Amino acid sequence: MRKILIISAIILLAGCNSAKKGTSGSTAKYTIENLRKMDAQDIERNYPDANIKEGTDLFEEGTDERPYTILYPGTPDELHITWQDEARSRIHDLRYASNGKWKSETGVKIGTSYDELTRLNAKPVSFYGFGWDYSGAVVWNDGKLENSGLRVFLAPQNEHENKFYGDHIIEATPEEIEALDLEVTSIMINYAI
């Protein structure tokens, strides 16, 4: 009887571990860093339900033409991929702006506050002004996320003064930053650097 209990316990523990592996695998499927080595065929194979849309467009303020792929268009899981080549064999960058399935292994997500971003970076971050193509772009200031390839964009949740607009790093007091109530509204990871 005692042997049966021990064997049952071992089987039960093994079953629990395999269930955990399945969970982490499905979560990993939607971790943006895991897409790095994929080409367009890999993406089609791994995301068969993504209703993939493809095309070519201008990027980098209209200076570079690149092919792109959109996964889950028009849904909270929408993900934009631009490619380094016409064959769509190497990802240039990817970006998303909704709090859907996609996550970054850094812990940064859509809705992350300025204070949380500073904590994750282990050093204060700076950000560019609002109202232009790279509105609210974060500068990591040699913090923990400096070499992650991750680019995030902040937006104020409250009204703000004109001095917070434009293509320059914002100099603001802690009180002004708190009043802006900044949150991450877009996440991009660049694999072409």
UniProtKB/TrEMBL annotation:
Keywords: Signal. Residues 1-19 form the signal peptide. It comes from the Bacteria. This is Lipoprotein.
